[in-house]
From TrEMBL, chain A:
GO biological process: cell division; septin ring assembly; sporulation
Keywords for this protein: Cell cycle, Cell division, GTP-binding, Nucleotide-binding
Protein name as catalogued: Cell division/GTP binding protein
Cross-referenced PROSITE patterns: G_SEPTIN
SUPFAM superfamilies: P-loop containing nucleoside triphosphate hydrolases
Domain Septin-type G: 43-323
GO cellular component terms listed in the entry, alphabetical order: cleavage apparatus septin structure
Family: Belongs to the TRAFAC class TrmE-Era-EngA-EngB-Septin-like GTPase superfamily. Septin GTPase family.
Any one GO MF annotation of this record: GTP binding
Automatic annotation (TrEMBL), chain B:
Listed Basic and acidic residues bias regions: 377-401
Name assigned to this protein: Septin
UniProt keyword annotation of Nucleotide-binding present: yes
Native source species: Anaeromyces robustus
Taxonomic lineage of the native organism: Eukaryota, Fungi, Fungi incertae sedis, Chytridiomycota, Chytridiomycota incertae sedis
Sequence segments annotated as region (Disordered): 377-408
């Protein structure tokens, strides 16, 4: 290099009036969406779900119903002489399910023993620790000098919190755990075994739950303000906001789960049969199972994964790195 | 040929009546007397909130004893202990008066830490036993008011799995003091097979932990229908119940039930739930049994335990009630004297402390006063000095002071 040669000056020229530029021919970069899709389908998706709730609320049945496959075994196999669990355990089961060529690696984390003892203080500790540990593992893998190209994502993308259908209000343990969980990951509360409530009771219960959530400043998924500053407000965004608002009005979902089929109007559908009628879980007037399933899998799946990455994980990462910096600074003194 | 061998007691000879005597009227006399006196029945309901306890009570007695729960505003203050609330209602049917007392236990099992949540309940039951014991030991026993708990209906949430630790703990602590009747609450959520497996699992758990739930007794001299009924009742325990006080129209009759989008469940239909059996047992057939069992077995057990453990009964043979009363009165007086002496001692001590404090401050003040007085003296002497100096002749430089006129 000759001495005296200046480094190239970078001049950025902006389009002065933001004129819309029209193309005079077909370029073809609109196929990028298909290219991305092909790549993603080849790679497969990962969804990590956690179910939290007292035993007997139908968590395992719900998961099996949501994904139309027998993924979890439920508890009705213990005997009276088996010892009762003393702490909240964390059990993760991973399955790979496929639909139309799209592979989903589904991990379900079950929390047996939560809220089952007489003294339930700090039964949520192991759950919070587990979620944070997943973030910590991911962070560590990100920070290593030779990191993998694709870090295996074990972070919990959504927590389904099961509320007992008392019909009155949230229990103290529900409020505390919901608050703690909503600070670190996406929480979707559902009213379990909703077939024990009539429609008026259900509406009153939901209203009461929403009041209590607002009173305790608990903010749940879907969040409002994630992407709005990046893009201009288009028709699609408005539709998305409307959908989010609709979902928010519906939360908590009143669900009924079933792996067995009953015959309704000559067709076999999934449901529960009683002596005074049969419940069809796909029927939207009976329960909100189909809305929950659509919300989780058909409309907001990508949103859940993304929000975990860009909101919750980032919060955790910031806190960790700030703490790390402070500790190294105090060490170097 | 095989005639049953009857062992006839030789001292009691059965006789045939030659005419109508009339003592077959005795039951009717008892009946009339009891109706005049009226009946008392005390039931306790225990279970987590939201299991339908109040609704079930209203449904059982066909009146709204419990008003509908008003939704409260969400607050941050939560009560910390189990409350005991009593409601008494006088209801009448066909001239028979019943004084019904329902004891509710709001807060049981609702908190995060539910240890010792049975403690207030057990204490309440034992306090009622104590009250009755005390009444029995009085010299004048004319008006005995029986507030003892005759039955405790325990509500099990319909998980469909098994009994929870809190259920087992509660029942273990209370089964020897009260007639326990466990019921599966809100059972319309369970299907038939689930109910069957849940009931058998509950009975297994109960047997494993040696819990004694109330078993309606079967008498041999009952008629076959009653025996069959009792057997049915025993087989269906624990009852799976649904409560409702709202009427609906099904077909062309009015029923009490719950209306779902997929059907209406009728509370009074024995095919739908066991509510009818529970009502039968609690009110129609076994109310008197429950009271008798409480009086003869549970209360007696408590009484003997209590009396053995108290210091008076060192000899079990003669327990003269009057001397016992004297003894108790003496003990009571001693206790009062001791408490009085203690309080007096505390009072004296406080007085002493205050006295010393006051004396201290008095001394301080005195010292201060002396000090100030001395200072004042010093100042006065100083001033007198200066006055003398000033009178002797003006010091150079001392200006004519104002206000010295009075020195002249």
């Amino acid at each position: 290099m000759e001495q005296g040669q200046q480094s190239p000056v970078v001049v950025q020229q902006q389009n002065p009036e933001n004129k819309k530029i029209t193309l005079t021919g077909y370029v073809g970069f609109d196929t990028i969406t298909r290219q991305i899709e092909k790549k993603l389908v080849k790679r497969g998706f990962t969804l990590n779900l956690m179910v939290v709730g007292q035993s007997g609320l139908g968590k395992s049945t719900m998961v099996n119903t949501l994904f139309a496959a027998h993924l979890l075994d439920n508890k009705a196999t213990q005997k009276a002489s088996d010892p009762i669990r003393q702490t909240t355990e964390i059990n993760t089961i991973t399955h790979v399910i496929e639909e139309n060529g799209v592979r989903l690696r589904l991990s379900i984390t079950d929390t047996p023993g939560f809220g089952d003892q007489i003294n339930n203080e700090n039964c949520w500790e192991s759950i919070i620790k587990y979620i944070k540990d997943q973030y910590a593992t991911y962070l560590r893998k990100e920070l290593t000098p030779n990191r993998d190209r694709r870090i295996a994502d074990t972070r919990i993308h959504a927590v389904l919190y099961f509320i007992a259908p008392t019909g009155h209000s949230l229990k103290p343990i529900d409020i505390i755990v919901l608050k703690k969980l909503s600070d670190i990951c996406n929480v979707i509360p559902v009213i379990a075994k909703a077939d024990s409530l009539t429609l008026e009771e259900r509406a009153a219960f939901k209203k009461r739950i929403k009041e209590e959530l607002a009173f305790n400043n608990i903010v749940l998924f879907p969040y409002d303000d994630v992407d709005t500053d990046d893009y201009s407000v288009t028709e699609a965004d408005r539709a998305e906001k409307a959908l989010n608002q609709e979902m928010r009005d519906l939360i908590p979902f009143a669900v009924v789960g079933s792996e067995r089929n009953v015959v309704v109007d000559g067709k076999a559908v999934r449901g529960r049969k009683t002596r005074w009628g049969s419940i069809n879980i796909e029927d939207e007037t009976h329960c909100e199972f189909s809305q929950l399933r659509n919300f989780l899998t058909r409309t907001h799946l990508q949103d859940l994964i993304e929000t975990t990455g860009i909101v919750h994980y980032e919060t955790f990462r910031t806190k960790q790195l700030v703490a790390l910096k402070e500790s190294t600074m105090s060490h170097s003194r | 040929m095989d005639t049953p061998v009857q062992i006839i007691d030789q001292t009691i000879t059965p006789r045939q009546l030659k005419g109508f005597v009339g003592f077959s009227n005795l039951p009717r006399q008892v009946h009339n007397k009891s109706i005049k006196k009226g009946f008392q029945f005390t039931v306790m309901v225990v279970g987590e909130s939201g299991l339908g306890k109040s609704t079930l009570i209203n449904t059982l007695f066909n009146t709204s004893i419990y008003p509908n729960k008003e939704p409260k505003e969400p607050t941050n203050e939560t009560p910390k202990t189990v409350d005991i609330q009593t409601i008494t209602a006088d209801i009448e049917e066909n001239g028979v008066k019943l004084k019904l007392t329902i004891i509710d236990t709001p807060g049981f099992g609702d908190y995060i830490n539910n240890e010792n949540s049975w403690q207030p309940i057990l204490e309440n039951i034992e306090a009622r036993f104590d009250a009755y014991l005390e009444q029995e030991n009085r010299v004048n026993r004319k008006r005995l008011i029986d507030t003892r708990v005759h039955a405790c209906v325990y509500f099990i949430p319909p998980t469909g799995h098994s009994l929870r630790p809190i259920d087992i703990e509660f029942m273990t602590r209370l089964h020897h003091r009260v007639n326990l009747i466990p019921v599966i609450a809100k059972s319309d959520i369970l299907s038939d097979e689930e109910i069957k497996s849940f009931k058998s699992r509950i009975l297994e758990d109960i047997a494993y932990h040696n819990i004694q739930i109330y078993q309606p007794p079967i008498y041999d001299n009952d008629d076959a229908e009653t025996i069959q009924e009792n057997k049915d009742i025993i087989l269906s325990m624990p009852f799976c119940v649904v409560g409702s006080d709202k009427p609906f129209k099904v077909g062309n009759k009015n029923v009490r039930g719950r209306k779902y989008p997929w059907g209406i469940i009728e509370v009074d239909n024995p095919e739908h739930c066991d509510f009818v059996k529970l009502r039968q047992m609690l009110i129609r057939t076994h109310m008197e049994e429950l009271k008798e069992y409480t009086n003869e077995v549970l209360y007696e057990k408590y009484r003997s335990q209590k009396l053995i453990s108290s210091e008076v009964a060192n000899s079990n043979d003669t327990l003269n009630p009057l001397s016992q009363l004297d003894e108790e009165r003496r003990k009571h007086e001693l206790k009062m004297k001791k408490m009085e002496a203690e309080m007096k001692a505390v009072f004296d001590q406080k007085v002493h402390e205050k006295e010393t404090k006051l004396k201290q401050s008095e001394d301080d003040l005195l010292a201060k006063y002396k000090e100030m007085k001395e200072k004042l003296e010093m100042d006065r002497i100083n001033l007198q000095e200066r006055r003398r100096q000033a009178e002797r002749g003006g010091r150079p430089g001392t200006p004519e002071k104002k206000g010295r006129k009075f020195f002249k």
